[in-house]
Amino acid sequence: MVLNCNEIMDIIPHRSPFLLVDRILELVPGIRAIGRKCVTFNEPFFTGHYPGNPVMPGVLIIEALAQVGSVVMLSLEENKGKVPFFGGIDKAKFRNMVTPGDVLTLEVSLLKQKGPVGVATAKAYDDEKVFAEAELTFVIR
């Protein structure tokens, strides 16, 4: 299942300028998803992070991964219309800097779920390198 930006916004509550996923390339509801983020020089965070040396903040890479995870969780019928929140971020590693022109592949796979809480592995990468990895805990309310 492929989703464009409008279809993503039908599932998760995030909106510009904080919607950090451009497309879902693959989705298995409640199991896994692969998303895409095309990083452009026009991203609002580059204005201050850092002038003359734009680098995407690591927390926003994690947020982009969490938004893909939110699509995984909220695409389930029982979670439609609910709001996802972070329950935890573990084992986060930032391996390379994300700069304008990078195209992030955002892969999130659910490890386990109990009630409204889910734990997933998450990785941001491109064809050549891994940018970030983490284990994310979601709480759906």
TrEMBL record:
Protein name (database record): 3-hydroxyacyl-[acyl-carrier-protein] dehydratase FabZ
Superkingdom assignment: Bacteria
Pfam families the record matches: FabA
Classification of source organism: Bacteria, Bacillati, Bacillota, Clostridia, Lachnospirales
Family to which the UniProt record says this protein belongs: Belongs to the thioester dehydratase family. FabZ subfamily.
Location, primary (coarse class): cytoplasm
Keyword terms: Cytoplasm, Lipid A biosynthesis, Lipid biosynthesis, Lipid metabolism, Lyase
Compartments where found: Cytoplasm
Gene: fabZ
Record GO biological process: fatty acid biosynthetic process; lipid A biosynthetic process
